[in-house]
Design goal:
two-stranded antiparallel sheet; eight-stranded mixed sheet; alpha/beta
Length: about 260
């Protein structure tokens, strides 16, 4: 498959991976230009040489005072001004919300989403594509819907799960990018967070993957095609899934450090 151009990939830890997002983009013919701002990597002054950008999650908060957090948040003016496709995942979405004047913060009751949780597409979201019924989450903070943004998917504990701003800026709270190995690593490194209100036990992360990951992966491929290739996903009927019996009472935006 021919080279379709370069995608800027922004990661936040030394050993972080773009996971399935990277795999699917590379398989579609894109080159991945990986930058890690916390380790000193610069961000480009323009995306003229890139098809678009993806900013991933991390254990830090979009509200942290670190220099790179402010630098990344301010840098989002570049894809917005140039109307280049942009996807923010978890922390990346929260940075976009802050850049657009929204609010990022945790629930007053301390509730989190760590594990598998249901989401519901809005009317606008359903008009774009089919959405997964269950998604994988790992966050202690959520975000408000920025002024002018369109809500695409919602959930009970954190109502704003996916949104679109303008033509080319997208944000999602959940994680569709995890490979099996990545999830196993997160379950081990993030086990101390499973005692937080609403978090699920590690075994339910892995058993839930067996039930729901195929649908989530299928959605991700369609979603990336929509954002970076202007491909309209083929509408397909939803698949009925069953819930896992687990501690599911259902934000710091969070990838295990």
């Amino acid at each position: 498959m021919g080279n379709k151009g370069s995608i800027l990939v922004v990661l936040h830890q030394e050993h972080s991976s773009p996971g399935r997002v990277g795999q699917l983009l590379a398989a579609s013919g894109f080159h991945l230009d990986i930058r890690r701002p916390p380790l000193g990597d610069p961000l480009p002054e323009t995306l003229a040489a890139h098809r678009g950008a993806v900013v991933f999650g991390g254990p830090m908060s979009a509200n942290d005072p670190d220099e790179f957090v402010k630098r990344e948040t301010d840098w989002l003016a570049v894809p917005l001004a140039e109307d280049k496709p942009f996807l923010g995942i978890c922390l990346g979405a929260q940075m976009l919300v802050n850049h657009l004047g929204g609010h990022v913060g945790g629930r007053e009751d301390g509730g989190v989403e760590i594990g598998w949780y249901p989401i519901d597409a809005t009317q606008d979201g359903s008009a774009l594509m089919d959405w997964p019924q269950m998604v994988y989450q790992f966050h202690r903070e959520g975000f408000s819907l920025p002024s002018g943004a369109t809500l695409l998917a919602s959930a009970e504990a954190y109502p704003n799960q996916a949104f679109r701003y303008g033509r080319n800026a997208w944000g999602i709270q959940f994680h569709a990018e995890l490979t099996r190995v990545m999830m196993q690593r997160w379950v081990v490194k993030g086990a101390h967070r499973f005692v937080l209100p609403g978090a699920q036990a590690g075994r339910d992360h892995l058993s839930g993957r067996m039930l729901w990951d195929m649908q989530l992966r299928h959605w991700l491929g369609n979603f990336l095609g929509l954002i970076f290739e202007d491909r309209s996903p083929r509408q397909e009927p939803h698949t009925t899934v069953h819930t896992v019996a687990s501690s599911m009472p259902v934000r710091r935006g969070d990838e295990p450090s």
